Amino acid sequence: MSRETNAKQRMVEAALALFHARGVYGTSVDAVLERSRTGKGQFSHYFKDKDGLVRAVLRHFYGNLRRGAYDKVDAIRSWSDLERWLRAFLRWQQEMECTLGCPIATIGNDLSQAQRGLRREIRDIFDWRRAFVAAFFRQQQAAGQMRKDFRPEALADFCYTITQGGLFMAKVERNSTPFEHALRIALAHLHSMRIPAKGARTRGASS
Questions:
Q1: Which in 9, 70, 137, 204 has the greatest CB count within 10 A?
Q2: Of residues 70 and 65, which shows the higher confidence score?
């Protein structure tokens, strides 16, 4: 990696960490430069303005997400995978001592209606994540192992809203218990939609 490319990478990684902790409004360009040990000339060359930096951060995060850098589950193939994926959000929040939320939601919360391009970038990330979950429900329904009361996309929205809301509530209250309660009920609801094989009983969500 060249020195200039390394400087760009440092700025993007520094901005992601600062945006996650402070939000976009709470992070100045000078703070990014100080953390990344770079200069204003380099910033102007690579990003032009703060919106350009936010866009680079979102694309960096999305690329890492698609490569599996943030998830140990590369695909949801079983109910155990689904539960492990959902509970990973809770475990992460507990490890962070309830001090942070979702980095993309934190960035998105600071964007104005006028920043349509950046909001579209965030929607693309969320859409990809929801599709990851919807594919599992679609497979289960096609196999006759799950009721068809809801569209897979709606169930994926439900799962993703539970995780995002849980992360937010835990951060605000500095307490993961509400998230844990919501997740337990959500899992019980999802398991109730399973169609057990003949002679078998559907397992309930674990405590």
A1: 137
A2: 65
